Amino acid sequence: MTDETLKPSPLQALHEELNARMGGYAGYALPESYPSGMEVEHLHTRRQAGLFDISFLGQVRVRAKEGDPAVAAEALEALMPLDIRGLAQNRVRYGLLTTDHGGIRDDLAISRLGDDFLLMLNGENREDNADYLENALGGECRLIREFDRAMLSLQGPSSAGVLARVLDPAAITGMKYRDSLELSWEGGVIIVSRFGYTGMEGFDISIAAEQAEVFARRLLAEAEVEPAGLETRNSLRMEAGLCLYGVDIDRTTSPVEAALVGSIAACRRAGGERAGGYPGAETIEGQMEHGVYRQRVGLRPEEAVLLSSGVELFSDEARTDQVGRITSGCFSPTLRAMIGMGYVMPSHAAEGTRLFAVDGEGQPRTVVVTPLPFVPQTGH
Fold it and tell me: According to its UniProt record, what is one Pfam family this protein matches (predicted)?
C-alpha cells in the first residue's frame, strides 16, 4: 500500500500494474524495485537497457524577459561556477549551485534550448531551490516551473538503438554525449538528453505528464527494455562513484571536499577570464589552493558487511582516532561485493589505506580506501 501523503507519479498506474514495490522519495511514491529484484534489474541495465521513473526531479526554465540568452547566462553564472555563456545550443552540463560559505546547495543538469536554459533540480528541495533561483536571478529573467512534467531515464548499452526505433532515428543516432534536443512525439514536445546519472550510456527524457505512460509502455514493448527501480539507480550511481544529494553532498560539503572540482569551469577558477563571482568563490578557491580537511573517497570492506551511512571511521582498531565517516554504501551486483563512499582526512585518503569501522553488532571491521569509480563509466 502506498503512503497517501506521497504524490503519485504520472506512471503510478503502470508501476502498480507491474507489481512494483513502492516507496517514498522526494515526496513522491516511486518504485524501489520490481518483482525480479534489484540485482536482476541492475545487471539487465548493464547488459541491455533499464527504464527508470525519475519524475521527482524539478524542471525549471530560465529565460531573459527581453529574450536575450546572454542576459540569462550572465545571471546564472552569478549563482554557479559554470561556463554558462559558453554552453552551446542543444548541449547539457552537470553543475552545482553553491552557498555563500562554499557548500553545495544543489547539483543539477543544465541545458541550453533555444533562448531558454532548462535546469533539472533535485527533488527533495526543488521548491526551495526554485524560490532561491527566482529571487536571485533578478528582474531581468523569468523562472518558469515545469514541475508537472514527467521525467524518464533510459539507461544501458541498448538505449540508443531502442530510442531510435521510437523517436526520430536520425536525430537520436546523431546525438553525441551531452547533447540535448527538443523532439516531437504524438503531438507533444519531448526533451531528450544523452545524459544520465548512472555512469552509463543512456538518455534522460522530459515529457508531458499526460503522455508519460503511453511513452513508457512504448519503450517497455522493446525486447531490450525492462523496468528498473530506485534501488538499481542507486547501485549504478554508486558503482560509477557519483554523489547522491543529501547523502554524499549537501550544504556542509564543498565541491573540493566532494572531489567535484571538475564541475568548476576553468574560466571561473582563479586566473580564469571570469574567475569567481559566484557564491562561496573565495572559500572554494582557497580550498583549491591550500587543500581541505576531508575528502571524498571510495571504500571497500574486507568482509561482506554493508557500509552504512553515518558510521564513523578510525585509523586504529581500538577506535581512538576518528579520521572520517561513511556517507553511503550498497551491494554492487557487478563486482559481487559491498562498496561505499565517505569522507576522510587527506592523511588517510591514499589508495590502500586500511581504516576501521563498527558494524551493527559493535564489531570492528576493516575498510580499505579504493579509487573511484568502482566500475569504469561508459558511453562518454
Answer: GCV_T_C
